Amino acid sequence: MYWVKMAQSLATTVLKLGHTQKVKSSLQDTTQLKSIWEDIYSKDFKHRLEGVSEFGRHGVLTECITRLIHEGAILDMGCGSGILAELLPRDKFDYIGVDISEQALGLARQRQKGPNRAFVCSRVENFDIGCKFDAIVFNEILYYLDYASLIKSASKWLRGPRLVLASIFDLTASKWAIRRHLMQTLSEPREILICNGMDGLRWRVIFGPLKN
Tell me: domain 2-209, CATH 3.40.50.150, correct? Predict the structure, then answer.
């Protein structure tokens, strides 16, 4: 039950900072958020993300991308230690991962080196390098940010199939609101439920093209 307790604790802390209601961009606020995630990764969080209970979520994200667009450029928002970059075929996909934690990105760079893998330390809502991507993954981050604004802004990063994928851990009342918003914002949205029978952890992966 570590995952559940960690998620609840983190959500409470982020709520106090105002991130679930309104995105702030002050240096102090960014420093606080960064400090939270650096502390989480310092407590062996990387190994929990790579545990058996996470296989289903990462597998579904990977298969959705490889089956729906086959090849292209992927933007992974909240990439953590770069697990998705490792799973996507290198000869088919260019990949940029964005995360606020330097510690997480250090792990990602250790495992994934090469010309078509890059990792950027940034708040996701501030990320802008002038590139377009075929798909964007919101990897367990929408409930920490102004999700409506972030999903709306995704259009500036997308091209071609305009595929959006969002992974959501468990569904509390606030997360149902995110699910509803995704269902309204995506064209022909699909949803896959992943349940770990050993500990009862549940994720949803919601995906589809972003409406114009």
Answer: yes
